[in-house]
């Protein structure tokens, strides 16, 4: 399971870059998507926080200690591989 997530801006165009999650990479991510926040909380950071090796969040039940131990393998697992171009999700 990944323990860290980071954004690296493209040297030629700092408004676009890649997000590295553990050993995986998601490319063509707009910097404003990486920086997007709702209610003062970074959306991607919050999403990852609940899915990392040691999940974030308060513990209110023993069920909170039941977490995934692996992420799907991607193209090699049983589901078809889908590439999503994150800039195409921009609603502006």
Could you explain the architecture of this structure?
The protein is an alpha+beta fold and 92 residues long. The chain has a domain at 1-55. Helix content is 13%, strand content 24%. It is built from two helices and five strands; from the N terminus they run βββαββα. It has helices at residues 31-35, 43-49; strands spanning 5-9, 16-21, 24-30, 37-38, 41-42. The strands form two sheets. The protein has a three-stranded antiparallel beta sheet. It has a two-stranded antiparallel ribbon with strand order 4-5. A hairpin with a 6-residue loop joins β1 (5-9) and β2 (16-21). The longest helix has 7 residues, at 43-49. The protein is flat, with a radius of gyration of 15 Å.
Main sheet overview: 3 strands, antiparallel
Number of helical segments? 2
What order do the strands of the largest sheet run in, or round the barrel if closed? Answer: 1-2-3
- Overall pLDDT level: 81
Q: What structural class do helix, strand and pairing data support?
A: alpha+beta
Shape: flat
> How much helix, percentage-wise, in residues?
10-25%
Low-confidence stretches: none
What is the compact description of this entry?
By secondary structure, this protein is α+β, with helices and mostly antiparallel strands.
Identify the notable features of this structure and list them briefly.
3-stranded antiparallel β-sheet
